[in-house]
Amino acid sequence: SSHLQKKRRAATARRQHLKSAMLQLAVTEIEKEAAAKEVEKQNYLAEHCPPLSLPGSMQELQDLCKKLHAKIEAVDEERYDTEVKLQKTNKELEDLSQKLFDLRGKFKRPPLRRVRMSADAMLRALLGSKHKVCMDLRANLKQVKKEDTEKEKDLRDVGDWRKNIEEKSGMEGRKKMFEAGE
Hints:
Distance between the termini: 58 Å
Shape: elongated
Radius of gyration: 45 Å
Largest sheet: none
Helix content: over 70%
Number of helices: 6
Strand content: under 5%
């Protein structure tokens, strides 16, 4: 018994150790991912947003503003297109989820019906037809002797216990009991 308990404890400890190792691994992976995203963001900004150098003349400033406005418009269009794509994809996902739900609903489990089954049939169903098990329930019943039934009859004839107690109470009742030899 103690050997089995030790084995169980070892298995539990091993499971706990594996869990904590997996959690630690997940934490480091998440940290790596976050660092990679930050690097990617910096690279993107360096490529697409060069450091701003303001020109000296009014004409050059106006040209720069026009360029920036054109870029803002392009980015805005791109953002709008991406949003529309996202909405479309989300709608498709919803539709597919609904289809899946509907399909699941069509194949409901049928309600189980109660079936009257003899003990033999039940055993046959459980053990398969090759096992021939005969359960003669009557053979296991206790034989009832005639004396037992007579005792039960006497008990039935006694009737209501309250009436019985009233009859046996007081001196009269004790006298009756004495004469009856109880």
